[in-house]
Design brief:
By secondary structure, the protein is an alpha+beta fold. The chain is about 20% helix and about 25% strand.
Length: about 120
C-alpha cells in the first residue's frame, strides 16, 4: 500500500511540474500590446485591423528606412518614458510628421512614408 501511495505522490508531483513548466513557456510579457513588445515600435501588415501580429519591430532610437510598405497599416508605439515615434516621408528620418506618443498607435497610409524615427 505504501508503494502505491508513493507512486501516486510521485506521479502527482510530475504532473504539477509539467503543468507549471508548460504555463511558463507560453507566458507573454505583461506589457505586450497586440504582439508588440514593451519598449518597441511595431508596424503591422497592410489592412490588418485589428492589429494582431507585427511584421516590423523596432527597438533602437533613430531612423529606420522602410521599403515596400503601401496602404494602411497600424503603427503602435509601445515605448515608455515619454518616447515618441514619427512617420517620415524622406529616408533617414527626414520630413517627419507629428509625433506618435508613447503607448498610442495610428492607422496610417504608409504609401508616402519612407522611414520611421524613434525618439527618446
Amino acid at each position: 500500500m505504501r508503494k502505491l501511495f508513493r507512486g501516486a505522490a510521485a506521479l502527482a508531483t510530475s504532473v504539477v511540474a509539467v503543468i507549471a513548466l508548460s504555463a511558463s513557456v507560453e507566458a507573454r510579457p505583461v506589457d505586450a500590446w497586440a504582439g508588440c513588445p514593451d519598449g518597441a515600435v511595431c508596424i503591422y501588415p497592410q489592412n490588418q485591423n485589428p492589429a494582431v501580429k507585427p511584421t516590423h519591430v523596432f527597438y533602437r532610437y533613430g531612423a529606420h528606412n522602410l521599403s515596400n510598405q503601401f496602404g494602411h497599416h497600424w503603427v503602435l508605439n509601445n515605448q515608455y518614458g515619454g518616447a515618441t515615434a514619427n512617420l517620415c516621408t524622406g529616408s533617414g528620418g527626414a520630413g517627419c510628421g507629428s509625433p506618435i506618443a508613447a503607448k498610442t498607435g495610428v492607422y496610417a497610409d504608409l504609401t508616402p512614408v519612407n522611414s520611421i524615427r524613434l525618439n527618446r
